[in-house]
Amino acid sequence: MLFSNRYSELIKNDENFLGMISENSKKRIIKVMEEFDQPNIVATYRYDNFTITTTAINLACLELNQQFENNIIEPDAYENYFIPEDIDSLNLFNLIEIHCSQLSFSEKIEFQKELNNVFNGEKMPWLMCDGELIKLDGSLFEANLKAKLLNKFGELKAKETIFQSAFEEFKSACESYEKDDFKNAILNAELSYESVLKIATNKNQGTAKILTESFANSIKMIGEMKPQGFNNGVLSALPYIRNNVPVAHGAGATTVEITAEIANLAINLSSALNTFVVETYIKNKREENNSQEIDYEESQFN
């Protein structure tokens, strides 16, 4: 779904949803798009072999015009498109996502990295991940926490599809929060955490309690920390919120307001806990692979 369709309600209800995007920010974004203006060979007709060579920007501008049945960006006399620096922010964001979809897999990864560098440098609350723009609300610390996890998920799911669900659930949590749907923000934050725990513990099912206990018992404790204390005091913080606010397991007859602060805390906990579990999982996999390589090398000499 295109950016403007995905965020249509928020754009309609909040005129400042996109934020102030300076002229310099637009120039830097357009420059990145021009640097990734990858050549494309496309067929002009379904039933013959005739093709033409064009570019990602040309295809993106053409598709943008077709989507809205309007010449938002006019081609030059040679049917080539150039992104105007005065393009409005909404159409620019639509164009970014369409442009990304025209790139090869490797170019898409690099394009997103460069674009995110611009967002970070210009202090824009946006992240490009998996071909979509995601808004990162909150303080710079919170935004960086969410961006780190989303980027890590994006890299992992490209290699291991098992991370697809965790990525989608966390992204849904962020989007629900943007829509003031705090119940689903908490639910999806917790679902993402449970999905990651299932991967790290190699379990296909289990309650949050079972999963956190299993993970706590599988990792090396530091100093005076014990698995049970680490589980109760750290790993179970997000499940505690999910289980003790009226979002699941039958909320009861009493109507209780779920505040933005609690929902935001749940998402931030999901960011931090997911990052810890994922980084631990990656470290363990790397050590396991290194150990297997050593065992193989030793077997060659025996």
Radius of gyration: 23 Å
Proportion in β-strands: 5-15%
Q: Give the total of domains.
A: 2
The N- to C-terminal Cα distance equals: 58 Å
Biggest sheet record: 2 strands, antiparallel
Q: Sketch the topology as an H/E string, one letter per element.
A: HHHEEHHHEEHHHHHHH
Structure write-up:
With 302 residues, this protein is mainly alpha-helical. It folds into 2 domains: 21-135; 138-248 and 256-302. Helix content is 63%, strand content 6%. The protein is built from 13 helices and 4 strands. It has a two-stranded antiparallel ribbon with strand order 1-2. Helix 9 crosses helix 12 and helix 9 (182-201) runs parallel beside helix 13. The mean pLDDT is 86.
Summarize the structure.
This protein has helices spanning 3-6, 8-13, 23-35, 56-67, 89-101, 105-121, 140-159, 164-178, 182-201, 208-218, 227-235, 237-244, 260-300, and strands spanning 39-43, 51-55, 126-129, 132-135. It has 302 residues and is mostly helical. The radius of gyration is 23 Å and the shape is globular.
Topology:
Layout: H1 3-6, H2 8-13, H3 23-35, E1 39-43, E2 51-55, H4 56-67, H5 89-101, H6 105-121, E3 126-129, E4 132-135, H7 140-159, H8 164-178, H9 182-201, H10 208-218, H11 227-235, H12 237-244, H13 260-300
Antiparallel strand pairs: 1-2, 3-4
